[in-house]
TrEMBL record:
Full protein name: CYTH domain-containing protein
Naturally occurring in which organism (per UniProt): Actinoplanes friuliensis DSM 7358
C-alpha cells in the first residue's frame, strides 16, 4: 500500500465501507504540488474541550468550522468507535457517518455526526459571547450525554486558520485534498487526503504513494492528526 501499512486497515475493514487515506507531509513540500503558501484561509476551526482534555482522552471530539462564503458546520466525532455498539438512534441518524481514518502507521474507525449551520453563525456566536454548544443539534447533545465524561467547563481551542486546496497529480486519476493548518502558536501542518471504498484502499494507496514520490513528496517524520496538534500542542 505504498506509504500506508496494510494491516491496520485490514483489521478494521469489516467496520466501515469507506476509508480516508491521510498523509502528513513536510510543509515546504506543498510548493512542489503547486500550493500557494500566501493564499488566504478558507476557514477557521475551533474545538471545545475541558482544560484537562477529558473529552479527547475519552474519544470525543467537538469541532466547529467557520467557512468563508459557505455555511458553517458543527461536528461531534467519536474516535475510536465500534459500529456494532452504536445505538440505533445514532446509527440511523441523518449526517452520521462511519469511516476509517488511515495514517501511514495506524488506522482507526471514526463515527461523525454533523450539523450544517448558517453562514457566519459561529463568528456571530463568538462575538456575542455565547457558548458554541448552543449551535449543536438536539441529537448532538444526546450523543454528548451518552459518550462525553463531562460537558462542564468547556473552553475554546483555536482559532486555527485552514487553507484547503484540491489538487490533481500526474499518474493519479482522483483529486487529492490538501489542508494546511496554521495553529495559534505559529506552527503548521500540511495533510494530503483522499476517500475511497475500503475494497479499493490498497490500489488507491499504492497509486497515491507513487504519484507523490514523482513530485518528490514523502511522509513527514511525525504522522500526527490535525486534532491532536490542535489540542496537545
Amino acid at each position: 500500500m505504498g506509504f500506508w501499512q496494510p494491516d491496520p486497515v485490514r483489521v478494521l475493514a469489516g467496520q466501515a465501507s469507506e476509508v480516508e487515506l491521510k498523509l502528513v507531509v513536510p510543509e515546504h513540500r506543498g510548493r512542489s504540488l503547486g500550493l500557494d503558501p500566501d493564499r488566504k484561509p478558507d476557514r477557521r476551526v475551533y474545538f471545545l474541550d475541558t482544560p484537562d482534555l477529558d473529552l479527547y482522552r475519552n474519544g470525543v471530539i467537538i469541532r466547529f468550522r467557520d467557512r468563508r462564503n459557505q455555511r458553517d458546520d458543527a461536528v461531534i466525532k467519536l474516535r475510536p468507535v465500534e459500529p456494532r455498539r452504536v445505538p440505533g438512534w445514532l446509527r440511523t441518524a441523518d449526517r452520521f457517518q462511519v469511516e476509517i481514518d488511515a495514517l501511514p502507521d495506524h488506522a482507526v474507525c471514526s463515527g461523525t455526526l454533523k450539523r450544517r449551520l448558517g453562514r457566519n453563525d459561529i463568528s456571530r456566536t463568538l462575538a456575542a459571547g455565547r457558548p458554541l454548544t448552543g449551535l449543536l443539534s438536539a441529537r448532538q447533545h444526546k450523543l454528548l450525554t451518552r459518550y462525553a465524561p463531562t460537558t462542564d467547563g468547556l473552553i475554546v481551542y483555536g482559532p486555527i486558520d485552514v487553507r484547503c486546496h484540491s489538487i490533481k497529480l500526474r499518474g493519479l486519476s482522483r483529486d487529492l485534498t490538501a489542508e494546511r493548518w496554521r495553529y495559534p502558536d505559529g506552527s503548521d501542518l500540511l495533510e494530503l487526503s483522499t476517500r475511497c471504498p475500503i475494497g479499493k484502499a490498497t490500489t488507491v494507496a499504492a497509486r497515491m504513494s507513487a504519484a507523490l514520490r514523482a513530485y518528490g513528496v514523502t511522509p513527514a517524520d511525525q504522522q500526527r492528526t490535525k486534532t491532536e496538534l490542535a489540542l496537545l500542542q
